[in-house]
């Protein structure tokens, strides 16, 4: 953790950046499976927006303020699952609860999430055009510096430069707002996948060209015993799905255009994990593997069968 956040006092006075309830110690380090370069590279190559970030709430059909509630969650994408949620879980204490913004470290964490989002846009990716997302207003949720209420729409906050700040991680010049036109393949994939992100039961999605398979589960995973969920599907539906090469873990720079062209080429397989009962272990990292015949609690994230990780905190439910 940054030194400024772990000292109880500063110049003999209480340090307002210090929070005594954190579970992580000052010397603990986030694992590569949560924030490593391979994780960041995977995030930056995701398309469309819902796979990168998150979708609007499942079932949302209007712009009512009632949808701004932890009870109504969309489908988590790679950035939302890892590193966003898992950093909250790792730090713990207040950061692992619904009032996580009371820990000063929250602002550092969310600024970094914003930076990664900015980098994703810099690489030529567009945010969701869904008006049920872009048109949502956060009524009286924030304050201006003078103490008056600030109620922005999502569309007011998509580009940081008009808000008075930017990042300098890359020499790329930010494209003007609204100037990016997604390639036809990305648009086609977005239209096809959108229905999958907005229904509780994937079998209800009727988008053309999508074969949906549902596996019901009543089992429970424990730290010492993994949960295996067989998914029965037609062989010809998955025979053309290719295992794609993950971005190298030691590479800080990748060819985003090439990686995204590969991502939208040919058939893809998506797994949606719905209605996870996490309440007894909400501050837990859940790791997902596919077709691993030797899986054990010790199987590392570097294993080729590893898909990714996710977590929940503070009632941000599943």
Tell me the helix content: 10-25%
| Number of distinct helices | 9
Tell me the domain tally: 1
Average pLDDT taken over every residue: 81
The end-to-end distance, rounded to whole angstroms, is 28 Å
What does this protein structure show overall?
A hairpin with a 5-residue loop joins strand 3 and strand 4 (149-150). The strands form three sheets. This protein has a two-stranded antiparallel ribbon with strand order 1-2. The protein is globular. Helix 4 (78-91) packs antiparallel against helix 5 (105-122). It is 25% helix and 5% strand. Residues 171-175 have low confidence and may be disordered. The protein has 318 residues and is mainly alpha-helical. It has nine helices and six strands; from the N terminus they run E-E-H-H-H-H-H-H-E-E-H-H-H-E-E. The chain has one domain (3-310).
